[in-house]
Amino acid sequence: MGDLFWILFSTMVVNNFTLALFLGLCPFMGVSNRVDTALRMGAANIFVMTLTAVAVWALNTFVLAHAPYLRLIAFIVVIASLVQIVEMVIKKVSPALFRALGIYLPLITTNCAILGLAIFQTTRGYGLLQGLFFAIGGGLGLLLALVLMASIREALETADLPDVVKGTALVLLISGSLSLAFMGFAGLLSAS
Amino acid sequence: MKAARPADDFLRCLWQENPVLVQVLGLCPTLAVTNTVANAVAMGIAVAFVLIFSSLFVSSLKRYIPNEVRISAYIMIIATFVTIADMTLQATQPAIHKAMGPFVPLIVVNCIILGRQEAFASRNPVWRSVLDAAGNSVGFTIVLLIMGGVREVLGSGTFLGYSVFGPHYEPWVVMILPPGGFFTLGSLVLVVNVVRRRRAERAAVPALPVRSETKEAA
Amino acid sequence: MSAPPAAEHAPPRVPAARLLTTLGTGGALAGALLVFAYQATQPTILANKRKELAQAIAEVLRAPQRYDTLYVYRNVLQRELPPGVDPRGLERVYLGYGANGERIGFAVESNAAGFQDRIGLIFGYDPATGRLLGMKVLQSTETPGLGDKIYKDTAFVGQFSRVAVPLRGVKRGAGRGDSAEVDMITGATISSRAVIRAINDALARLRPLLDGYRAEASR
C-alpha cells in the first residue's frame, strides 16, 4: 500500500508529468488561459488516462509479449479508440458535459501525456494497481499544473506586459518557475 | 516564380514558419532531450528520418487513402517509422537511447509530423512534400541544437562531452534540469519574437514616402 | 439528369469496405516492415544488453571468469526451470566463478525509492564472508552535483567492496567504526539511504537462499 501511495504522490508532484517529465505540453500551452477550461481538460485527461492504464496493462500482459515490435502501433490505436468511445459515451450519457468539453476530448488523442503514460508504465513494468495509481497521480499532476498556470495567466491579464512576451514565451517562463517550485517536493516521502 | 518555389518550401521552415518557434509544435521533445548536445542531435536525426519518410509515403499514397480514415492511416505510417527509428537507435547507440527514454516513441504524437501530413503532404506532390519535410526537420534540429548547446555548456560546462570552461567552472545545474529547459526555450521564443517584431516594424517603414506622395498629389 | 441524385446516395455504402481494405493492407504492409526491422535489430540489441549486464557483474564480482544465471522460483534458487515456466517474469541472481572454478559470490539487482525517483543498482555478495564485494548504480535520476555522487563519488562506492551486511548508514564522522557501517554522502543522505535500503531489503529476502545455495553446490 505504501508503494502505491508513493507512486501516486511522486507522479503527482515530484515527477509531475508536465513540469518534470515534459509531457502534455501542447494542450498546456493552448488550454491554460482559463481556469474552468483547465479544470475540464484536466478532468477529461484523468478519465482517459485511467482507462488507458487498464488497457495498456491488458495489452502488455496478454498480447504484446508475443509481438513487442507492434507495441507503439497497438498503443496508439487503443488510445485513439478509447477517446472515440469515451466521446460517444459522454455524448449519450450527458450532452451538457459533452458540449462543455467540446474539442478537448479529441485533442487528448495526440496528447503526448497519454502515450507517455503508456510507455512509462511499460518500461517500469507496473502491474494493474500500480498502473492505475500511476495514471491517477499523473492525471492529478496534469490537472494541478494546468489549474495553477490558468490561475496565474488569468491574474496576469490585467498586468501591463510587453507584447513580445505574451503568449508562448510567457507560459514557458512561468512554467520554469513552477517547475523550480515543484522540485521542492523531491525527497518528501523518502525520509526513513 | 516556379524556380523559386522548391527552395521556398525548404527555406521558409527555417525561420518564418519554424515548427517550434513560430508554429509552437513539438515542444515536448525540444525541452526533454536537449540537456546534452548529443541527445539533441540524435533526436533531430530521428525526427528527420520519420518526417521525411512519412511525408514521402503519405504523399505517394495520398490517392489511395480515403478521406475518412486519413488520420488513422497517417498515424499508422508514422508509428511504423518511429518504431524502426527506435529499434535502430537502440541497436546502434544504446547509451543515447537510454538517455532519451520514452521520447523516441513519443515522436509518434509529435504535432510537427502529423501536422505536416495533414497540412502539406496530403495535398502536394511528392518532391515538394519531401522538401517541406526536410525543411521542417532542419528548422526543428536548429532549435534543438541551440537549446542543447546553451543547456549543456551552461549546465555541465561541456559541449559534446568536451569541457569548455575547464575544471574550475561551477556549472549552473538548473540548466540541465526541467526548469532550465523551460527558461531556455522561453527566452529563445522571446528573442525570436523581438527580432520578428523589429523586422515587421522595419518592413512597415517604407510606407511613409507613400503617404507624403499622396499628400503631394492631393 | 437522374444520375447525380442516385450517385449522391451511393458513395456512403461502398467506402466502408474500401476503408477496411485500405487500412488492412496498410496494416499488413506496416507489420511486415516492422517484423523485418525487428529481426534485423534484435540480435544487436540483445547482445548489447548481455554485454552491459556482463560488465556490471564483472564490476561487482571483481572480474569473474564466468557466471551462472539462477532464477528465484518458488523460493528456491534454480539454474534450470521446469518446462513451461517463463523465465522473463522471474527474479534472477548471478553466481560468479573465478579462474579455478571457485565461487566468488552472487550478483543481485535491486532498487529503492530515492530522492527524485527510484534508484536501480546491482551489488555483489559473498556468503562465505557475509560481506559485499561491490556495488554499481544502474539507474538513477538523482540531482546532479548532489545525489549523483552515489555513483560519481568513488570513496562512497568503494565502501561497498568490503562492508558487512546488514548495512547501517551513518553520517560522516558519527560512526562507531564497525564493519557494517557505510558513511553516507553529506548533502545526499536520502540518496545514500536509498542505496543502503535497496541492498538491505534484497538481502533480507534472498540471504537465506543465497547462503543455502552453498550447500547445494557440492552436489
Structure write-up:
The complex is a heterotrimer of chains A (192), B (218) and C (219). Chain A is mostly helical and 192 residues long. In chain A, 73% of the residues lie in helices and 0% in strands. Chain A contains nine helices and no strands. The two termini of chain A are 16 Å apart. Chain B has a two-stranded antiparallel ribbon. In chain B, a hairpin with a 2-residue loop joins strand 1 and strand 2 (162-163). In chain B, helix 3 (37-60) runs parallel beside helix 6, helix 4 crosses helix 6 (111-121) and helix 6 packs antiparallel against helix 7 (126-156). With 219 residues, chain C is α+β, with helices and mostly antiparallel strands. Chain C has helices at 3-9, 14-60, 149-152, 154-159, 189-217; strands spanning 66-73, 76-78, 92-97, 103-113, 118-126, 131-139, 168-170, 181-183. At the A-C interface, helix 1 of A face helix 2 and helix 5 of C.
Give a quick summary of the entry.
Chain A has 192 residues and is an all-alpha fold. Chain A contains nine helices and no strands.
Low-confidence runs of chain C:
1-14, 215-219
Along the chain, the helix and strand elements of chain A come as: HHHHHHHHH
User: What's the rounded overall pLDDT mean of chain C?
Assistant: 84
Strand order of the largest sheet of chain C: 2-1-3-4-5-6
Main pleated sheet of chain A = none
Listing every helix as H and every strand as E from the N terminus to the C terminus, the arrangement of chain C reads: HHEEEEEEHHEEH
- Looking at how many chains there are and whether they match, the oligomeric state comes to heterotrimer
The largest β sheet of chain C comes out as:
6 strands, antiparallel
| SS summary, helix count of chain A | 9
Largest interface: A-B, 40 and 41 residues
Tertiary shape of chain C: globular
| Tally of individual domains of chain A | 1
Portion of residues within helices of chain C? 40-55%
Q: Provide the gyration radius of chain C in Å.
A: 27 Å
Structural class label of chain A: mainly alpha
Number of strands of chain A: 0
Classification by helices and strands of chain C: alpha+beta
Measure the end-to-end span of chain C. Answer: 94 Å
Number of discrete domains of chain C: 2
Morphology call of chain A = globular
